[in-house]
Structure formats: structure tokens, C-alpha cells
Amino acid sequence: MGDSVISVSELTRRFGARAALDAVNLSVARGAVHGLVGANGAGKTTLIKHVLGLLVAERGSVRVFGLDPVAEPVAVLSRIGYLSEENDLPVWMTVGELIRYTRALYPGWDDAYAEELRLMFALEPAARIKTLSKGQKARAGLLVALAYRPELLVLDEPSSGLDPIVRRDILAAVIRTIAHEGRTVLFSSHLLDEVEQVADHVTMISHGKVVLSGPLAALKRDAQVVGGREPTLDELFFAHVGIHAASEAET
Fold first, then answer.
1. How far is it, in rounded angstroms, from Cα 80 to Cα 64?
2. What own/partner pairs with CB < 8 Å and gap ≥ 24 does 99-107 have?
3. Residue 186 forms beta bridges with which residues?
4. Which residues, 6+ apart, have CB-to-CB distance to 203 below 8 Å?
5. Which of 28, 145, 155, 227 keeps 20 to 30 A from 135, CA to CA?
6. H or E segment and range at residue 243
7. Spatial CB neighbours of 139, under 8 Å, sequence gap ≥ 6
8. Of 79, 51, 77, 8, which is closest to residue 187 (Cα–Cα)?
9. Alpha-carbon torsion (57, 178, 138, 168), positive or negative
10. How far apart are CA 177 and CA 147, in angstroms?
11. What's the whole-model pTM score?
């Protein structure tokens, strides 16, 4: 995990008078599972949109695979798998059509892996996207984000609003993805227990600022609580962000 897949330096973004991001620095090492945590509205999605090249930095810089995602979107996005809470899939397609359509876009598409994911997620090829439940749509979105084996997987609140079984399936698929050598995951969520299950690095954002960042094991070790017990990620969040933001993050 020597080199950085994502490198963000002093990134600042304002929307009117509000600072959505305030001099944010972030480094995501190759092969890491990097959890980006914060309350709703903390700036996580704004940061991810800069990583994807959807927003132009007002100040600072963003590099993904050493490239500017705004200046070279094709070179960057062709190496990224992305799944968001909105998960906007073409509703007129069937699952099979979605798979075939996405397959045509990526030379690295792995048919066997796509079928393995389809079976794991219990998705029928003939089912229309518009008839799927929210959980099934999330599974379909994750399937097409994973099946071309992207170097970087970006998950922005992928399991928000989903039932525990679907969240478990998504986490299991993410863990399987990590098992393939060299793959990197940036996982944004306000569900701290889920991030704790899969992340080896964590960056905590509050009101557009990074308040804590580092390997999760080291952060826990350095913040031992009374009795020598290592804190949970939830307890770390509470200590650095406070009770109001912590309660928001759990909603």
C-alpha cells in the first residue's frame, strides 16, 4: 500500500457563505479500505464528487491515479467503480440488459464474476429495474460497479436506508473485492459500525474539516479508554465530533 491512489491537498469548496470543504487533505493508499465518516452534511459527498471530477476545486488539488479527474475524466473514471445512495440506474432496462450494456463499456469486464455476483444477489436477468426494491437496486448497482474489477471502488452511503440483510450482502461483496490484489476502496458512510467492520483506514470529517485521520487500529490504540480498552469507532467519533454530530451520524 505504498503509493496513493487518491491524493487531496488543501481542497476548499464553498456553496454561498457555507464552507462545504475547508482545506481538506486526504491520502488513500493503494490496497487500502478507507472509511470516510461524518454526520449527514459533513462534506463527505462533496469530497467524493471532487474525486470523481464532478466538481472543480475552488482551491487546492485533487489527484486520482496521479491524474486530475476534471482534466482527464475518461482516464480516471474508466478505472473507478462507483455506487451512491441514489444509485440512478436506467429503469427501463432489465437486469440482463443492464449487465450487457455495462459490459460493452469496459474491456476488463469479467463475465464469470458478474454471474457470480448476480447469483449471490439473487437478481433475475428478466426483472425490470423499475420493479426492483431499493435493496435489489443497490445490489444491481454494486454488481455493475464491481464486475469490471475496477482499481478503485468508491461507495458513497451505499447502504443508507437499506435493511440489515441487504447491508450485510453489500459488505460481504466489498470484502470479497478487497481480497483481489491491489484493489482500493473509499467507503463513505454515517453508519459507523459498518465502516468499522471493513475499513483499515479512517478519515473523520465534521463541518467540512478533517478532524481525525489514520489507520483505524492505530487510532484506537492511541485513544484507549478507562481500563485500557480500545474505543469503538462510534466512541472515537463522539470524542472528536461531539454528541450532537454523533447522534446525527446514527440516524
1. 10
2. 99/125, 99/143, 99/144, 99/147, 102/144, 102/147, 102/148, 103/147, 103/148, 106/78, 106/148
3. 34, 154
4. 26, 34, 35, 36, 37, 210, 212, 213
5. 28
6. helix 243-249
7. 121, 122, 123, 166, 169, 170
8. 51
9. negative
10. 10
11. 0.86
**Residue located via cell numbers 475524466:** 73
pLDDT at 217 over 60: yes
At 186, which helix (H) or strand (E)?
strand 184-189
Judge whether 185 and 177 are in contact, CB under 8 Å. yes
Name residue 20's amino acid: A
Q: Which residue has the cell 470543504?
A: 21
The partner residues of 63 in beta bridges, in order of sequence, read 7
CB atoms within 10 A of CB 230: 14
pLDDT of 56 over the 80 cut: yes
pLDDT at 179: 62
| pLDDT tens-place string over residues 13-24 | 998 888 899 999
pLDDT digits (tens, 9 = 90+) for 178-189: 766 678 999 998
Predicted confidence (pLDDT) per residue in 59-70, tens digit = 999 999 999 999
